[in-house]
């Protein structure tokens, strides 16, 4: 009888530990995405061609409600916003300046077209790539970099 109540107590304890762990991971995920919410970056896009880097085209990259989009991609190439996932969220100090580093990825698929975003944000600066594929073959690749637009 004593053994049975010990097992029940152990089972309840394990359930509490698992619940607490799951809750803490959910809270961390929410904290990570807050850094990338409602950010608008003024960027330069460069099409990467076999002959070299194309001419710079000004645009914006916006992150909001867990999605990333660009005016250039939307207007010129009809690519809609894509859900992003944060793959790295880190803070560190460089020359007595606090730095916040975030890496994100996004993937969008429609019919046989695929769009893959990768971006790195350090404080107010962003760098990344957008690859457009059709049937699994790279069709266009863009690199972009820029800075967050100042809020008026």
Describe the structure.
- This protein is of the alpha+beta class and about 150 residues long.
- The chain has two domains: about 1-35; about 35-150, Lipocalin (Beta Barrel), CATH 2.40.128.
- About 25% of the residues lie in helices and about 55% in strands.
- The chain is built from two helices and nine strands.
- The protein has helices at about 1-35, 70-75, and strands at about 40-50, 50-55, 55-65, 65-70, 80-95, 95-110, 115-120, 125-135, 135-150.
- An eight-stranded antiparallel beta barrel has the order 1-3-4-5-6-7-8-9.
- A hairpin with a 2-residue loop joins strand 6 (about 95-110) and strand 7 (about 115-120).
- Mean pLDDT is about 85; it is low at about 10-30.
Summarize the structure.
The protein is α+β, with helices and mostly antiparallel strands.
Features:
152 residues; 2 domains; alpha+beta; 9 strands; 8-stranded antiparallel β-barrel; globular; Lipocalin
| Distance between the amino and carboxyl termini | 70 Å
Radius of gyration: 21 Å
Instruction: Give the quaternary arrangement of the chains.
Output: single chain
Class inferred from helices and paired strands: alpha+beta
Question: Mean pLDDT, rounded to whole units?
Answer: 83
How many strands in all? 9
* Main beta-sheet annotation: 8 strands, antiparallel, barrel
H/E element order: HEEEEHEEEEE
Q: Kindly give the count of domains.
A: 2
SS summary, helix count: 2
């Amino acid at each position: 009888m004593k053994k049975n109540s010990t097992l029940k107590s152990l089972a309840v304890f394990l359930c509490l530990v698992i619940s607490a762990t799951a809750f803490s991971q959910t809270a961390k995920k929410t904290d990570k995405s807050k850094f990338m919410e409602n950010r608008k970056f003024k960027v330069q896009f460069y099409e990467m061609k076999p002959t070299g880097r194309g001419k710079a085209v000004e645009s914006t990259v916006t992150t909001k409600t867990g999605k990333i989009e660009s005016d250039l991609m939307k207007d010129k190439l009809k690519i809609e916003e894509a859900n992003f996932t944060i793959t790295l969220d880190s803070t560190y100090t460089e020359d007595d300046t606090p730095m916040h580093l975030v890496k994100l990825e996004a993937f969008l698929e429609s019919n046989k077209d695929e769009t893959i975003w990768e971006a790195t944000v350090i404080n107010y600066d962003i760098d990344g790539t957008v690859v457009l594929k059709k049937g699994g073959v790279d069709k266009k690749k863009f690199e972009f970099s820029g800075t967050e637009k100042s809020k008026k």
